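Me: I keep going back and forth on a fold encoding question. No explanation is needed for now; the record alone will do.

Assistant:
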Amino acid sequence: MEIASSFVDVFSPLHVSFSSEGIMTDSRPQLSPKAFDRVVEEAIARIPAEIRRHLDNVLITVQPYPSQELLEELGFPPDEELFGVYSGVPLPERSPTDPPLYPDTIHIFQEPLEAFCLSREELIEEIEITIVHEIAHFVGFSDEELESFGYG
């Protein structure tokens, strides 16, 4: 038993745990799309109202993972995970006379988030952080403003 607990401690950063039968398992959350949507709703509910109000006209979608084309377009490093991305025209770049061409959208990527998070609570927290970060792109928040809300 002492060896097993040391073994778990050594491998816990790799999301390893043991079942009741002593079989090594992956402890990361892996949710159905519907269950993941509920977690996203929980994360949104935790965002302070003064930030969350910016979501009124923003669509939030959940996709399994970002496309290779998107990663290349963003110049995203291959050794990093993309949890979410904002697509649209940020408010500071808009003209009042320009009609909207398509809805502003925040895309959340389920598989990278699940691969990164060790627990449901951590998943909710990471989704919250991701959505706030993407709202910042939409609204044009500065790093200082994000810090004032506790997301710096």
In short: Residues 120-139 form the longest helix (20 residues). Helices lie at 2-11, 33-46, 49-52, 68-74, 110-116, 120-139, 143-148.
